[in-house]
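Thread: quick sanity check before group meeting

JM: Hey all, I'm pulling together slides for Thursday and realized we never actually wrote out the predicted structure for the chain we discussed last week. Dropping the sequence here so it's in one place. If anyone has concerns about the input, flag it before I start.
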Amino acid sequence: MDGLGLLFHAVVAIGANHRDIANKSGTLRMTSSDPFAFDLDGDKLREECGVFGVIGATDAAAACALGLHALQHRGQEAVGITSFDGTEFFTRRGLGHVADNFSTGESIAELPGTMAAGHVRYSTTGGAGLRNVQPLYADLASGGFAVAHNGNISNAMALRQELVQNGAIFQSTSDTEVIIHLVATSRFPTLLDKFVDALRMVEGAYSLVVMTPRGMLACRDPLGIRPLVMGRLGDATIFASETVALDVVGAEFVRQIDPGELVEVELDGKITSHHPFGNHKPRPCIFEHVYFSRPDSVFNGRSVYGSRRNIGMELAKESPCDADLVVPVPDSGVPAAIGYSQESGIPFELGIIRSHYVGRTFIQPSDGARNAGVKRKHNANRALVEGKRIVLIDDSIVRGTTSLKIVQMMRDAGAREVHFRVASPPTGNGCYYGVDTPERSKLLAGRMNIAAMREFIQADSLAFVSIDGLYRAVGLDGRNNACPQYCDACFTGEYPTALTDLSTREKEEAQLTFPVGKVA
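JM (edit): ok, ran it. Output follows.
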């Protein structure tokens, strides 16, 4: 069969051996956001998604749903699970959280088999919509397969244009489907070789879990930008974006998938490791330590909680402050605030209280209660902060609008001074590897120096941890400027791969960075 013929056999989510259950049953839910809620998480960088795969388990879909629940923080827009019963693939997809779509025994019963893969997502490339919810399924002449992808292909647009010119018909706007079409048009005989051939053509970041009639493939891009780990649960093999997902399902952590490694697990349990992409210097995303991963995960061999506490300690050494209390911005600022407090000797206190019982569907307030609405999720602990000099600790400043509100909240509660300390360097550059980053013009550090940022958020002082301080916090002597140990492009503007899909103007703007200063 020629390449064009293969493309007609690569139709996403359609195939003789595939059942898309969610589309048939119509059980799709999407909760609406509350425009009046003061959500401190709304001004954060968002990881695009998380993946989970299990092979060799009698209750594969149930284990997959539980694992995805542990990864819910990595994607809260949509969820999907695909299972394989030895003959047929089954997919259930929906908009919303894992619990919105996989909370009943009936939903799990619709996904039979001993192998399953799942995905939680935010949208970066491709946008929102059910057609982009993964895993994506495709039927080839040689059999079907399903793909769950964490990351972003930075030459997807260029590859897509070429594929369309050659007759490809795309069913989604996701960059993941580009990989599917590249697999479909590969001339290599086996599905494994087709995947290797396809991945040689893509640039950017990917951690993949792939289901085939022969078993499961798990692969990480040559730089290891996005995370992927392997575990064991009895006779079952598990792959997940974070170790916390292994903990939640009761699995034992085995190891992380190496950058550029492709692990093949056959239905009989045989495991084979391949390294088809040569040797590269790893560049995992350092923001996993700062914010993306759950604090109870282990990333790149280090406790995420420990790294965040160390960042706070480095921040206290670099940017001390004469203050009465160290107050974290909940919840992501807590470990760094503990570290800052321990190093500085300034007491740690919960000066901002977060309500965990206000969901997105909370009743809308009347017009007269809009101002009160901002305090439903987060409220200043007035009895604690009144008359005090406060050091606020947050993990990052993105647009700066939330930081401004937090500072004002402290002042309204009677704080005498409000000093802001940030547990990452200024985020002045966009991410093109699977993180939902605002365009540069909307990043506060992309258009202001530290003195101007301090004035914008109306703090008495503002300081960020240095790039070397961040590297020391994760166990290194500092940043190796000649050969950086992590991907830190959002801070430095130094991207580890080509950015083919960016225009010349965008590439020029991406390299404009402001120096990291001291206290302003």
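AS: nice. The chain is about 30% helix and 25% strand. The chain has two domains: 3-24+45-282, 302-510.
JM: adding both to the slides.
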